[in-house]
Write a structure and sequence with these properties.
The structure holds two protein chains of two kinds. By secondary structure, chain A is mainly α. Chain A has 21 helices and no strands. Chain A has one domain (3-477). Chain A is globular and about 70 Å long. Chain B has a single domain, classed as Helix Hairpins, CATH 1.10.287.3510. The chains are: A mainly alpha, B mainly alpha.
Amino acid sequence: MTTSLLAYLLIPLFTAILIPFAARKRQKLADILATVTLLAGLINIGAILFNPANIANSFAGVPEDGFALLMIFVIYLVALCVTFFSAYFIGEDSKVNRVPYYSLIMTSVAAMCGIVIAGDFFTLYIFVEVLAVTSFAMITSDDSAKGLEGAIKYFLLTFPASLLILFGIAFLMLTAGTFSFENIKIIIASGMPVGPVVFAVSLILLGFLIKSGVVPFHTWTPDAYEGAYAPVSAYLAGIVTKISGVYAVIKISIMFRLFEIRAYHTADILMFLGMLSIAVGALAALRQKEFKRMLAFSSISQIGYIILAAGMGTPLAILGAIFHLVNHATFKTVLFLNSASLEKGAGTSDMRKLGGMEHSMPWTSWTSIVALLSTAGVPPLSGFWSKLIIIIALWDGGAKTYAVLALLFSVVTLAYFLIMQKNIFFGKPTEASRNAREVRPAMLAPVVVMCLLIVALGVFFPYIYAYLVETIAARIIL
Amino acid sequence: MINSFTLDWFFITLIFSAGLYCMLVSRNLLRQFIGLEIMSKSCLLAVISVGSVTGNLALAQALIITMIVIEVVVVAVGLSLLVKNYRLTNSIDIWSLNNLRG
């Protein structure tokens, strides 16, 4: 465990405990407390990442690993956007009780920071479970039948993952005698036969693949995202399921690089599952009629790119996976928050009932265009660079078929997003969209900030690449 | 100390299969939860058995106590979801959860 980053875990946890006492009489205080805590944390981590002195000496003064710092920055950014958005989204007549809602968000931020700074598999497991509990509760925060159904499916279909992780931990104790990442690396490097250790780590990997919603195990994803309370689905898709599943997969794949014989084909299976999720997610998204459900399938498809790169396992591929994880958090949050805005402004997010929304909701329309172009990988937006890194790494690593297929399905991504854009925002206004109004400027602010970030990450790509190489590739991969 | 490792794993597999069978054959949500609980108990047994065979019993006990606490919290939240669902739909049949489809 990286103790110097513990403050990022403890301060949100303290706020989560404080909110029920402080905001008992005045509910508005809950969202002020949550937003202020997250903003302070974001400024703090931003001062480390964007400090000119640190950039100049290539982060030599920052001893922590760059992956954890980057992930903490993204966690705080997405959580801040969601809390700020939902402060205005929760209306007076809403069933949502602000106090437990914000308290749960702060607890889940603490749990995600715990996952990121965990140094061994058992700590990782504990924080993953804490995160799962908070997300079950958050999905049902508006007490709708759909939310409950999504939460129950999420519960029943991801609980077996915890069992697999537990069995993996038991086998790891039997074969390696330790759970910590560093010690496992030392055992692998020492050259003793590693077959049983690979088996144990593969069981844990399977558990995390279920938690991240890769294709054979993806059935809970669309239901949980569609049923969830609107801002919560942005939070879930943007960061929660990525940290609870994909983060650990990348961490394990960094470890797998050390196995000389490609980890008994586990890495090959990982690549195959990644490709399968890209294909199934993109093709299923083509025929969805509900905006949030289509975004959920798109999310499965984008996770596929990350898993594919993680399975490749070369340093360049891992960098691509990490950068795509960051980009996915930005553009998927924008799209899900826009679907929440549509629900607020037009009363529905069903594509069949909407049309011509660009006249009544121009800001939502334009931010959606930026986010979808970034997802599809159009230069100079951020998604282009991460997909480019992944495809170049695949081609260099010898997986030429996967590289070509990944490129082709990138076009399918553009296709389903253009269908969505045409059905919802372009064309003739329908009954529902004539009465629609643009949401308040305060609700547009997080979305616009995220869009600026998407453009900035793309335009200032050389700096981002230098950061990735200097802090992640040089310190933890090589 | 008698080495009961093989016998342990025989029972762990048995308990795991019992839980899996309970989940597979039942349409009742409550029984599905019970099946999950039985399966997770076999995991706890696996950890304690491994701890005993490697001579790491103190570590294994610490892990087990933490795992039990975590599991209680997870199952309590799951049961609360079930109760909420029962109040809304008056049913605990798993096939009644089919309102979300694209």
